[in-house]
Design a protein that fits this description.
two-stranded antiparallel ribbon; 2 strands
Length: 122
């Protein structure tokens, strides 16, 4: 059994920021066809109503990436603080044999013996 006692705040924040940004990037194309016509169908107080909706949809992955970064940093920091008191997660790891094992043992060829010549040092 292994116990995870602390997590690196910056690596966790970086991964969470990337995950949140990528998840939102996957959902933007699904929600954009519904939001853009709605913004174009409203009152035409501004000529850029559709462009503003499109720009906000394009900025969402960045905004969610920043939110994920902040949430990951806060979560990792809180985990480190609380794991000192509670003990942390217990992990059970199984070591799998590598699939790159040779089917036969590798035997290196023998090096030829160097014979010293009479009167000359090696």
């Amino acid at each position: 059994m292994y116990i995870l006692k602390s997590a690196g705040v910056l690596p966790v924040a970086r991964i969470m920021g990337l995950l949140y940004g990528c998840m939102r990037l996957l959902f933007v194309p699904l929600f954009l066809p519904f939001g853009l016509p709605g913004s174009l169908a409203g009152r035409q107080e501004t000529a850029f109503a559709g462009l503003i909706g499109f720009a906000l949809a394009a900025m969402r992955p960045l905004m969610f990436g920043f939110v994920g970064f902040a949430a990951g940093a806060l979560g990792a920091w809180l985990y480190n603080v609380l794991s000192n008191r509670a003990g942390g997660f217990e992990l059970e790891l199984n070591l799998q044999p590598s699939r790159l094992v040779a089917p036969y043992p590798i035997v290196w060829p023998a090096t030829p013996a160097i014979e010293p010549r009479p009167g000359k040092p090696l």
